[in-house]
Structure formats: C-alpha cells, structure tokens
C-alpha cells in the first residue's frame, strides 16, 4: 500500500523516532511503513492519520495492481 507518511512527517518536522514514540512503536516500524514493507493495523493507521493531521484515506493509497 502506498502512503504519504514520509512527506507529511517531514512537513511537520518530525523524525521517525518522534513519530514512533508518539505511537508507541519502534522507529523501525515507521521506517518499514514509509517504505511500503509493512502495512499498519487499522488502529495504527488511524493514529498515524490523526498525528499527521489527515485522514486514513488520504494517508494511504491501496495498490490495486
């Protein structure tokens, strides 16, 4: 699933570690999500969207191919 987490995170001047701490996950988890190597749970997706000031449907774009 494609996402805009890295772009939005940088716009808010958050480091991966900052975002990870706010969500209660590891920096490696944030890195994996940003690089499309891990799809977050629905709850984590909603938390990410909330922290980044957007909605889940704007944060994630399903790869339907």
UniProtKB/TrEMBL annotation:
Signal peptide: none annotated. It comes from the Bacteria. GO terms for molecular function: DNA binding. Keywords: DNA-binding. InterPro entries: Cro/C1-type_HTH, Lambda_DNA-bd_dom_sf. CDD domains: HTH_XRE. Residues 5-59 form the HTH cro/C1-type domain. This is Transcriptional regulator. It comes from Clostridium kluyveri (strain ATCC 8527 / DSM 555 / NBRC 12016 / NCIMB 10680 / K1).
